[in-house]
Amino acid sequence: MRRKLLAVAAVTAALLVGAHVPAASADTAFDVLVFSKTAGFRHDSIPAGIQAIQQLGAANGFTVTATEDANAFTTANLAQYEAVVFLSTTGDVLNATQQTAFESYIRGGGGYVGVHAAADTEYDWPFYGELVGAWFASHPAIQQATMKVEDRSHPATAHLGATWVRTDELYNYRTNPRSTAHVLATLDESTYSGGGMGADHPFVWCKTVQSGRSFYTGGGHTQESYADTAFRTHLLGAIRYAGGKVAADCSPGTTQPPTGRIEAESFTSQSGVQVVADGTAHGGNRVGYIDNGDWVGYSGVNVSGKTGFTARVASGGTGGTIQVRAGSQTGPVLGTVAVTNTGGYGNFVDVTTSLAAGSGALFLVFNGTGAGGLFDVDDFALSGGTTPPPATNLALNKAATADSQCASTEGPAKAVNGTVNGGNADKWCSLGGTKWLRVDLGSAQSVGRIVVRHAGAGGENTAFNTRDFDLQTSTDGTTWTTAAQVRGNTTDVTTNTFGPVNTRYLRINIITPTNNTDTAARIYEFEAFAS
């Protein structure tokens, strides 16, 4: 990507002559803003991209305004446009006021199309990371590769076959967006060299952000891309989707674990690890950032009568071992299994060991040498006796409301989204006079256990862990009964069992938010289980 800027005007004009995309069925007129400001590397294909989008607009009933002036990002000006295209932007391109206006525009129903280096933009702005889906990590040399088209119902991919062969600059991304976005096409890393994401390498995806629409394509590095009829049709479909002119299913999809296996991220206590979103993992998440001495515990999983342990793991690091312990992280070791480098964090394999007799809750303790993460764990199973099925989080992605939120990125939905990634982008925060979070389960459910992941679970100062709170139930959302009281808490994760109670609504009512003078309540995840 980072190479010397070339003179492009004559080349651009020559490439675009004769490129033709059949007009889409008539849309009502709409307006598109194309933004191509760069604060880092500048792509020599930007002029070709602007001209291509202008030509698409002229043929398909939308106007195009091209700018590199970030002052265009005001609430009043953005209101003119149905969609905003970030065309190979790089670096920090918007100031705080402009960021606020753009976030409000998207959350209020605006559309976004990110092209290529749009993923190399605004790394320190959490909302933009949510919007684009994944940030750029690296790329090999420009070369031909084959994409597998997963969804041909989207207007940006409806014209394609099952595969799409293109020559372009092929990005690797810092994270896999599959758990939060609808992946439309993936790169087949066996067809080129330099891929770094393994068997699941998303390259085109879409998603919704509250009322807004987001689309990202990794293509578009080369000038030739914008003369390619298939790529121009791809862009047209993306713009029509983002502009709200055609509907598409952009809900994320995940792969569930096989029956009888327990998701590693369903731990009830831990030290040192983080939950990492990963579309290749069963359930869409894995336990990662594992270093020597880290551990996870499962209060609802008993090792009594178990004779074997199998874990689905991946490692791009040095590997290490998993100790299976009973009762606590320092309890008796029932078995140990080695994890070696699997060829990357997207390459999962099963490792197995036999277990000695023991009793009590399951704890997994991780050991190894090296820095930067030893390995990741996706899910596991215990054999011998009866292995309980994976617990179902009844609160996952259910409707959540709260007394208030500290910022637009810290709303109550973040506390029931199933991830604990740390930072302001993945928690509910409140500075209100009364601090409460309410979850509507949608219908009456039997609830007997509530797990709350506090500030420390998300990587914040443990002094911010919620100190005093009540867990409450209600059948009508108005009259509340306290099922459990917690006072003087200092731990990152609290697990409270009760009842069980037949209830539709759950609430955490926070009395004292922290263990210091900070007055903000912080909840990274609120989980409810039948038992």
UniProtKB/TrEMBL annotation:
Domain F5/8 type C: 387-531
One Pfam family matching this protein: ThuA
InterPro entries given in the database record: CBM6, Cellulose-bd_IV, Class_I_gatase-like, FA58C, Galactose-bd-like_sf, ThuA-like
Keywords: Signal
Name this protein carries in UniProt: ThuA domain-containing protein
Signal peptide bounds: 1-26
SUPFAM superfamilies on file: Class I glutamine amidotransferase-like, Galactose-binding domain-like
Domain CBM6 intervals: 260-383
Species assigned in the record: Dactylosporangium fulvum
